[in-house]
Amino acid sequence: MQARSRTDFTGGLVSGQVAQAEAGQQAALANYQAAIQSAFADVENSLVTRQTLVRQVDAEVRRVRALSEYARLAKLQYDGGFTDYLTVLNASQPRQHNANLSIHALPTLPRPS
Predict the structure, then answer these.
(1) Could you give the number of structural domains in the chain?
(2) Predicted TM-score of the model (pTM)
(3) Assigned domain for 13 exists
């Protein structure tokens, strides 16, 4: 009888260790899955941020080009005698300067190939 009780006790110990190991494995798997989901969320957030920045840079480039064209047209009008020089100054100085400053303040983003 004594041999049997040792076997039952050992069997209970082993099954407890197996259950503990399985619980540890499940916890590790849950942590791994959470880390993967977090990594995907980080990548998605980065892609959205990049896309927003690309749109801002593109809009700013269009703005600078439009201001340059405005200044060019104002100069042509002045040269043709259709407007005064104040229009040329208004078209070229502060807006163009601010536009160039804002373009240089934007981050440089590599274009995907």
Answers:
(1) 1
(2) 0.58
(3) yes
